[in-house]
Amino acid sequence: MASEDQLITEYFMMFDSNGNSTIEAKELKTLLKVVYKQNPDDAMVQQFLQDFDADESGTIDLEEFKKMYRAMPIKPEGESLKDLFTLYDKDGNKDLSLEEVKSFLRDLGDNSSDDLVRKLMDEVDVDRDGRVDFREFCIMYGRTVYGDAY
């Protein structure tokens, strides 16, 4: 079983979509949607930044994120997203192909064309390998479940 610090670090890395070791406003908005099931507006995101951005950098670093996580009254159900990812990772290679993403979207009631699915994958494919890993899946999940246009 992972320690609380390890779990928090994993959440942080999931939502640091550009890999710059900080959570920026856009990433924070996605995190609040996916993990905490909030539908934050820009004012809510700015309030979180104001409350937890101790160094006033305009972003949340890992230590600030740990404080934010511990202050949240509801803790995320981290395994549920991981289990969902594993369910669609049919070949078990720890990333999702176009067909696996399409299967996920179909189950959400979205019968998008291959072109639209590729566009969504391109938007979340941070490492540009043409596939969707778990961190990218979390971002994609937020976009599809919460209705962000792609």
Automatic annotation (TrEMBL):
Alphabetical list of Gene3D superfamilies matching this protein: EF-hand
InterPro entries in alphabetical order: CALM/Myosin/TropC-like (IPR050230), EF-hand-dom_pair (IPR011992), EF_Hand_1_Ca_BS (IPR018247), EF_hand_dom (IPR002048)
Classification via PROSITE patterns: EF_HAND_1, EF_HAND_2
Domain of life of the source: Eukaryota
Pfam families given in the database record: EF-hand_7
PANTHER family: CALMODULIN LIKE 3, MYOSIN LIGHT CHAIN 1, 3
Protein name as catalogued: EF-hand domain-containing protein
Lineage: Eukaryota, Metazoa, Spiralia, Lophotrochozoa, Mollusca
Gene Ontology cellular component terms for the protein in this record: myosin II complex
Record-annotated EF-hand domain positions: 3-38, 40-75, 76-111, 112-147
Keywords: Calcium, Repeat
GO terms assigned for molecular function: calcium ion binding
